[in-house]
Amino acid sequence: MKLGQEDGTANYEYVTARVRSRRSSLFDESDYRKLVRMGPSEIARFMEESEYEREMNALGTRFSGVDLIEYALNENLVKHFDDVLDWAEGELYDYIARYLRKFDAWNVKTVIRGIYSGATSTEIDDDLIEAGELSDELLGRLVESNSIENVIELLSGTLFGDALEDAYELYEAEGILVPLENAVDRAYYANLQSNLPRNPNRAEKLYIEFVQAEVDFRNLRNALRIARSGADIDPVEFYIEGGRLFDEDELRQLANNPEELVARVRDSTYGDELDEALTELDGAQNLIGFEHALDAALLEYSHTLSNRYPLSVCPVLAYVLAKEREVDNIRAIARGREAGLSPEEIETELVTV
Amino acid sequence: MFEIATTLFSSIAPLLQSGSDAASSSPALTASGAAALSVGLAALAAGYAERGIGSAAVGAMAEDDSLFGRGLILTVLPETLVIFALVVVFVV
């Protein structure tokens, strides 16, 4: 995709105003406090009286219980992100559309995993989130295809095509999905950072900064996971290019040495945002806590960027992140309650800012 | 672009010259003409300022109807620029 393909100039004012309003209507901490004390059916009723009313009613005949909550959440997510794309024009549209291709990557991975694990096509179809750019028709054909080879063939024209074809040989040789999934992620992040203008203006610089932060956080998370698990995995296999925190060689060295890795992050530009998370990692020796803190830090960083530069793509991307978090949080609550976890346990799983 | 401007100017200049010859003391741009121009420029600037505010206000209103009054007020605030410029007309 090339910049400026879409007609018109970017209408930052309009989109930002609407997105901010939507953001402020997301569930806040007091809502979550209420939710963690409810059972699944109460959560469903709570959602029927909120933002999710339409989806809950529409899907109520097909699903029930926690499944209903989960599909209503996905459906609502898709609606909001489609709205954002509807409003945006010009370069703003390009940036948002690129970012939302994250859901294409998600869908492709879901299809591949589904086929690999032998799920039926309706099962896979239910788990897709149709907020990306892949057409419904293509998604339908992907779901119907019965082998991974077919999926890759169908995707050959899309941005995932080349990467997947390259990774397929590796998959055939080793029989594991990791190379395919990494290829999808890499293709997504490469697309995010491709065709950027050579002399970016203020708004474009902020977009780049935001994407770099996301790539950095992802690399950091992978590096820490590898370091912690102690498994003999080459961290470079999971490395995504385009961040500014570390390059491949540095990552390889740092992944074997968690302390140095943490020290490195503390000195970086993200030091302030991640300070709390890093302390948590030192104190609790708890990777899950750190990952949640990392999510919260990214959310906060996006928040800071969007407050500092209101007329840029940042408020929109911050909203996308916050909405995704909300969906993840409610899902965690509903699934947690279903499994009989206590409110305190569930609260540690939530990421709020 | 530049050539057009110079030809235009060189074709108009003699006219202005001859005009000033006829009524020897009146300048090309009179005081009231300049005042009118300033009001026009101020109106243009106000319009440009309202463009951004207006689109943000409409966006906010689309999400929440109760913001109509506030949005309207914020949108017309740059209109004060034109009022200030209008003062010039009375001063001249």
Automatic annotation (TrEMBL), chain A:
<dbReference type="InterPro" id="IPR014272">
    <property type="entry name" value="ATPase_V0-cplx_csu"/>
</dbReference>
<comment type="subunit">
    <text>Has multiple subunits with at least A(3), B(3), C, D, E, F, H, I and proteolipid K(x).</text>
</comment>
<keyword id="KW-0813">Transport</keyword>
<protein>
    <recommendedName>
        <fullName>A-type ATP synthase subunit C</fullName>
    </recommendedName>
</protein>
<keyword id="KW-0375">Hydrogen ion transport</keyword>
<dbReference type="Pfam" id="PF01992">
    <property type="entry name" value="vATP-synt_AC39"/>
</dbReference>
<keyword id="KW-0472">Membrane</keyword>
<dbReference type="GO" id="GO:0005524">
    <property type="term" value="F:ATP binding"/>
</dbReference>
<keyword id="KW-0406">Ion transport</keyword>
<dbReference type="InterPro" id="IPR044911">
    <property type="entry name" value="V-type_ATPase_csu/dsu_dom_3"/>
</dbReference>
<keyword id="KW-1003">Cell membrane</keyword>
<comment type="similarity">
    <text>Belongs to the V-ATPase V0D/AC39 subunit family.</text>
</comment>
<keyword id="KW-0066">ATP synthesis</keyword>
<dbReference type="InterPro" id="IPR050873">
    <property type="entry name" value="V-ATPase_V0D/AC39_subunit"/>
</dbReference>
<dbReference type="InterPro" id="IPR002843">
    <property type="entry name" value="ATPase_V0-cplx_csu/dsu"/>
</dbReference>
<dbReference type="InterPro" id="IPR035067">
    <property type="entry name" value="V-type_ATPase_csu/dsu"/>
</dbReference>
<dbReference type="GO" id="GO:0005886">
    <property type="term" value="C:plasma membrane"/>
</dbReference>
<comment type="function">
    <text>Component of the A-type ATP synthase that produces ATP from ADP in the presence of a proton gradient across the membrane.</text>
</comment>
<dbReference type="GO" id="GO:0042777">
    <property type="term" value="P:proton motive force-driven plasma membrane ATP synthesis"/>
</dbReference>
<dbReference type="GO" id="GO:0033179">
    <property type="term" value="C:proton-transporting V-type ATPase, V0 domain"/>
</dbReference>
<dbReference type="GO" id="GO:0046961">
    <property type="term" value="F:proton-transporting ATPase activity, rotational mechanism"/>
</dbReference>
<dbReference type="GO" id="GO:0046933">
    <property type="term" value="F:proton-transporting ATP synthase activity, rotational mechanism"/>
</dbReference>
From TrEMBL, chain B:
<keyword id="KW-1133">Transmembrane helix</keyword>
<dbReference type="GO" id="GO:0033177">
    <property type="term" value="C:proton-transporting two-sector ATPase complex, proton-transporting domain"/>
</dbReference>
<dbReference type="InterPro" id="IPR035921">
    <property type="entry name" value="F/V-ATP_Csub_sf"/>
</dbReference>
<feature type="domain" description="V-ATPase proteolipid subunit C-like">
    <location>
        <begin position="34"/>
        <end position="91"/>
    </location>
</feature>
<feature type="transmembrane region" description="Helical">
    <location>
        <begin position="32"/>
        <end position="50"/>
    </location>
</feature>
<dbReference type="Pfam" id="PF00137">
    <property type="entry name" value="ATP-synt_C"/>
</dbReference>
<feature type="transmembrane region" description="Helical">
    <location>
        <begin position="71"/>
        <end position="91"/>
    </location>
</feature>
<dbReference type="GO" id="GO:0015078">
    <property type="term" value="F:proton transmembrane transporter activity"/>
</dbReference>
<keyword id="KW-0812">Transmembrane</keyword>
<protein>
    <submittedName>
        <fullName>F0F1 ATP synthase subunit C</fullName>
    </submittedName>
</protein>
<keyword id="KW-0472">Membrane</keyword>
<dbReference type="InterPro" id="IPR002379">
    <property type="entry name" value="ATPase_proteolipid_c-like_dom"/>
</dbReference>
